[in-house]
Amino acid sequence: VPDPELNEEIIRVIALQLAEIGDQLDKEIKARVVNDLVRHFLNENLSGEEITRHMSEAVEGLARAIPSGMEQEKAMLVLAMVLTKKIVNTMPSLLQRVFSTTVNYISQQLHNYIVRMV
């Protein structure tokens, strides 16, 4: 049985690393990208799948500009979380929809990476 305290410490270290990367990437995300995503989230005619696709396209587009020294999957994970934060800061009423979409995106696109990371 894995040691719960060790697992908690590992998760804490991973979270700290992701937060540091997020702070760096936060400056690279242009307001236009955030505003475009806000517009999609506000469009109630778009399905959850369509919004997840828009989120995925935004993350992948931003990830292409990431320095080659950073793991692509790690960058995509952090970008998804930073985009979520920026969208919710721009339009707090979207919190539930943005959070659900981000969780779906991460589950679909980055599940294996997260499992390997932990």
Write structural notes for this entry:
This protein is mostly helical and 118 residues long. The chain has one domain. 78% of the residues lie in helices and 0% in strands. It has 6 helices and no strands. Helix 3 (48-63) crosses helix 4 (72-90) and helix 3 packs across helix 5 (95-109). The longest helix has 23 residues, at 4-26. It is globular and about 45 Å long. 19% of the residues are buried.
Please supply descriptive tags for the structure shown above.
118 residues; mainly alpha; 6 helices; membrane; BH3-interacting domain death agonist; mitochondrion
Question: What structural category arises from helix and sheet content?
Answer: mainly alpha
Q: Strand portion, in percent?
A: under 5%
Instruction: Kindly state the percentage of residues in helix.
Output: over 70%
Main β-sheet description: none
Give the termini separation: 15 Å
Name the shape in a single word: globular
Give the number of helices: 6
Q: Could you tell me the mean pLDDT?
A: 88
Helices and strands, in order, run as: HHHHHH
Unreliable runs: none
Protein name: BH3-interacting domain death agonist
GO cellular component, one term: cytosol
Subcellular location: Cytoplasm; Mitochondrion outer membrane
Keywords: Apoptosis, Cytoplasm, Membrane, Mitochondrion, Mitochondrion outer membrane
